[in-house]
Specification:
Blueprint lengths: L1 E4 L4 E4 L10 H13 L6 H12 L2 H11 L1
Antiparallel strand pairs: 1-2
Length: 68
Amino acid sequence: MIIERTKSEIIFRLPADIKIYELQEQTDWFRYLEVTRKRRATQDDADNLVRHIKKGRWARRKAQLNAK
């Protein structure tokens, strides 16, 4: 893994053999940080984000278990 900082962004470089679905929860967390960094999130914002993250979680877990 390589982490690179430019003037406007941080870039994570990962091996191509990592499955995208394995990164989904981390992606959701990074998205949360991005959305809330310039403003204060309300409880409703947090609740909506949690609902979005949980939606389809079982389907993703089931797919992971079946892929092994």
